Amino acid sequence: MRRTRILILGGGFGGVYTAMALERTLRRDAEVEISLVSRDNYLVFQPMLPEVISGSIGILDTIAPNTDLYTRTVESIDLNNRIVSTSSGFRPRPYQLEYDHLVIALGNITSFSGQPGLEEHALTFKYLGDALVLRNHIIHALEEADIEKDPQLRRALLTFVVAGSGFSGVEAVAELNDFVRTVARSFRNIPIADIRVVLAAGARVLPELPKDLGDFAQRLLARRGVEIRLNTRLAGATASTSSSMARSRS
Ligand SMILES: Cc1cc2nc3c(=O)[nH]c(=O)nc-3n(C[C@H](O)[C@H](O)[C@H](O)COP(=O)(O)OP(=O)(O)OC[C@H]3O[C@@H](n4cnc5c(N)ncnc54)[C@H](O)[C@@H]3O)c2cc1C
Question: How high is the pLDDT of residue 250?
Answer without folding.
Answer: 43
